[in-house]
Amino acid sequence: MNRLRQIWGFLTEPKVYWRLFSLALAFIFWLLAAGEGSLGGTERVIPIPVQVQNLPNDLALVDPPQDVRVRIRGLTPLLNMAEDSVTAFVDLKVAVEGEGTYGVEVKVPTGVEVIGVSPRWIKVKTEQIVENVFPVALGLLGVKPQEVIQSVLPKPDSVTITAPRSIMEQVDQVVAYISIGGSITRLEGTFPVEAIDKQGRTLDLVKIQPTQVQVMVEQVMAAEDDGND
């Protein structure tokens, strides 16, 4: 109790009291200046990307969600610090395959208020993730016409592909490319595999298991025809 009385007596001394009062008044003026004349703060509109949360493991996004514009309000210093911390997201916990409409939720730091979100609802398209098994083809690079390739067999000779349904429909084959040109007569190693479409383009959003195959290649030079029968 004596300690509290001492503190109170110190704070109520005219010299200390007026200093504290001046600091409080300066702080209020700073708030007014930061809020452009109003303690209610100012408003600002910022564009931010929309994140996806709780997407079921058996679904994949076809396209990323569109960005939204968020109107926030607060004191200017707080807005300046919080602008990079504002996040928007949609919860896809109950999503099913196809196109659905979901509400956008926004999180802001303390001291910042959300005034509005545009658009408030966005469409998100998802696809079922499917699985299929493909044999592994070998693309031999640098082979000359007079050369014969023997003992070419990948291990394993097939892989499992997991991908969204529309991507799986584009898979034409799974290939491991091997360069065996030059003086190499025997080549053994592990090579990555990739899924390609009918035009030979590598497909994205594809998961391959295993990602590599073991291959042994023996390169034999064919005998030249000397013209004698």
Count, helices: 4
Could you tell me the mean pLDDT? 80
Structural class designation: alpha+beta
The CATH architecture of the largest domain is: Beta Complex
Domain count: the total is: 2
SSE string: HHEEEEHEEEEEEEHEEEEE
Main sheet makeup: 7 strands, mixed
Classify the beta-strand content into a percent band.
Answer: 35-45%
CATH fold type of the largest domain: RNA Polymerase Alpha Subunit, Chain A, domain 2
Low-confidence stretches: 35-39
Distance between the termini: 123 Å
What can you see in these coordinates?
The chain is an alpha+beta fold and 229 residues long. The chain has two domains: 42-119, RNA Polymerase Alpha Subunit, Chain A, domain 2 (Beta Complex); 129-221, RNA Polymerase Alpha Subunit, Chain A, domain 2 (Beta Complex), CATH 2.170.120.40. It contains four helices and 16 strands. Strands 3, 6, 9, 11, 12, 14 and 15 form a seven-stranded mixed beta sheet that branches. It has a three-stranded antiparallel beta sheet with strand order 1-4-8. Strands 2-5-7 form a three-stranded mixed beta sheet, with no helix packed on it. The longest helix is centred in the N-terminal third of the chain and has 21 residues, at 14-34. The radius of gyration is 34 Å and the shape is elongated.
